[in-house]
Amino acid sequence: MKNETKKKVLQKSRGELYITRERCKGCGICIKFCPSGVLAFSEDFNSKGFHTPIAVKPEDCTGCNLCSLYCPDFAIFAVRGKKSK
Ligand code: SF4
Ligand code: SF4
Predict the structure, then answer these.
(1) Which sequence spans correspond to the domains of the chain?
(2) CA angle, 17 as apex, 15 and 21 as ends, to 5°?
(3) Which CATH code is given to the segment(s) 13-82?
(4) C-alpha triplet 46, 35, 79: angle, nearest 5°
């Protein structure tokens, strides 16, 4: 029983990432500050002519929401969930 509880606590959380491309101004802050290296610039542009971030390693997103905290345009956020085994 004790071991089961510990296992649940240690289970890594997972984030579902949401990016509103049209709000993004391509500053790259979210890419720079993501501690898991999840994000990179996409090669295409949004309608304002900016390269926007994409998740190149979505499986590594922990849902920490640092990208959301740093984004000046409220263009990105994550919802935290549980990583499936
Ligand atoms: S929620 Fe955290 S781990 Fe996921 S992309 Fe944003 S900064 Fe990176
Ligand atoms: S921090 Fe926001 S505005 Fe800057 S690149 Fe990321 S999503 Fe776009």
Answers:
(1) 13-82
(2) 170
(3) 3.30.70.20
(4) 65
Kindly state if the Cβ of 38 falls inside 6 Å of ligand 2: no
Q: Which ligand is nearest to the CA of 70?
A: 2
Predicted pLDDT at 17 = 95
Site to probe by mutation for ligand 2, drawn from 42, 50, 73 as the one with most ligand atoms within 8 Å of Cβ, is: 73
Average pLDDT for residues 4-29, to the nearest whole number?
82
Place of tokens 């263009």: 75
Distance CA 16, CA 13 (A): 10
What value does the mean pLDDT take over residues 57-82? 94
Tell me, what amino acid is at 72? P
Please give the residue that has the higher pLDDT: either 30 or 83.
Answer: 30
User: What does the pLDDT average to over 36-62?
Assistant: 96
